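ARCHIVE CARD
CATEGORY: sequence design from structure
SOURCE FIELD: tokenized fold
FIELD CONTENT:
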């Protein structure tokens, strides 16, 4: 039997990517992105829920992120969900959940096109094998609206 571990997120960077180089020369980038969801609660009031996701990029993707991304950038990222156990400086056991990115694309609105936030079919995705593209200033995106259906859940 096969299995699938795939994560797709669209969100904004909470900080500039932090890029380090290992002794082997491999680059690793770390940053977080925020995803937000708006919904009406049982009282009919609009609520917004924001989730933060830790992202790790390796090698060429890390180098591209360092050049293309900055705090506030809107990106689409695909990767896999990973869990890592480690010990902090006080000896406490910790667990971290991260998305290891396999591809990303900036979703910045381009002034020269009418394509909005999503690139056209002819645009190349940002992967470890493509050359970097220029990034324009971030613009606000529309929010996903989801009705609160917690009463309809089967559990």
């Amino acid at each position: 039997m096969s299995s699938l571990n795939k994560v797709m997120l669209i969100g904004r960077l909470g900080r500039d990517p932090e890029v380090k180089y290992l002794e082997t020369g491999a680059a690793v980038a770390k940053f977080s992105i925020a995803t937000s969801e708006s919904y009406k609660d049982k009282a009919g009031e609009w609520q917004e829920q924001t989730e933060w996701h830790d992202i790790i990029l390796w090698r060429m993707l890390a180098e591209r992120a360092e050049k293309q991304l900055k705090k506030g950038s809107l990106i689409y990222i695909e990767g896999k969900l990973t869990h890592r156990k480690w010990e902090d400086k006080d000896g406490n056991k910790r667990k971290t959940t991260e998305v290891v990115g396999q591809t990303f694309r900036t979703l910045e609105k381009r002034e020269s096109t009418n394509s909005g936030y999503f690139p056209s079919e002819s645009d190349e995705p940002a992967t470890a094998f493509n050359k970097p593209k220029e990034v324009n200033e971030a613009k606000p995106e529309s929010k996903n609206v989801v009705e609160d259906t917690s009463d309809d859940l089967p559990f």
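CARD ANNOTATION: The chain is about 5% helix and 45% strand. The longest helix spans residues 59-68.
SHELF: design records, drawer C
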